[in-house]
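Reviewers of the previous submission asked for a worked example of the structure-prediction workflow described in the proposal, so we include one complete record here. The input consisted solely of the amino acid sequence. No template or homolog information was supplied to the procedure at any stage.
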Amino acid sequence: MARIALVTGGMGGIGTAICQKLADAGHVVVTTYSRPGRETQWLADQKEKGYNFHAYQCDVADYDACQAMAAKIVAEVGPVDILVNNAGITKDGTFRKMGKVDWDVVMRTDLDSVFNVTKPFIDGMTDRGFGRIVNVSSINGQKGQFGQTNYSAAKAGMHGFTKALAQEVAKKGVTVNTVSPGYIATEMVMAVKEEVRNAIIAGIPVNRLGNPEEVADLIAYLSGDNAGFITGSNIAINGGQHMF
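From that input alone, the workflow returned the following C-alpha cells.
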C-alpha cells in the first residue's frame, strides 16, 4: 500500500538509498535538508533516475522549525505514516579536548532531532492505526568509539527512545525500531585513505564494507505492512563487526 514517508537527512549516501528504496516500494517520499543550495541539483539528479521526491528545508535540531515543517508537509503532501530519523552529524574529538559546543551540536542534531521530528507525527499515526518509525543509529552507539563520546552517547540514546516509545504505541498499530549500521561504502568512507579503509575492512568478519542499498532494504522492510510484529528492536547491520 502506498503511503507517505519522511526521511530526514535524505540527501546523503545512506539517505538517498533509503529514499529510493521507499519509492521503489510505492511510497510517496519526502526528505529534509538543512541548508539551501544543494537540494535543486539533488532533486534534478533523482528525477533523471525516475524519482520525484519532495524536499523541505528544516533544521531538525530546532523544535519550532520541525513543527512548521510537519504542518507544511501534511498540508501540501499529506499525512506521514512512515518516518525515518536519519539526519545526523559528527564532531569528533577526545573527551579531554571536546568543548561544550561540539557536545551540544551533536546531541541536538542526532538525538534531540528524533524527539523534534517524531513529536508532530506520532498522534496522527496512532489515530489512523498505522505507523512505522525507524531511527538510524550506529554501531558506535552500541560499542562506543574512541573520540566519539558525543556521537556514541547520542546514538545510544536513540535506542532508549525507541524502546520506550515502542511500548507506548504498540497497541495503536505503530512500530518503532532502530537500525545500527556499521561501516558503509558512502562517499565519506570511500574518501578515507586506502590503507585506513583496508584496516577497517580487516576488522569486519564479512571482509567488506556494507552498501547503502543494504541498509535501505532493511529500513524499507521495517517500514512495510509485513513488519508489524517487529517493534522496540535494534537491528545491527555491520557485517559481524560487533555482535551482541
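The two ends are 34 Å apart (CA to CA). We consider this example representative of the routine output the project will generate in years two and three.
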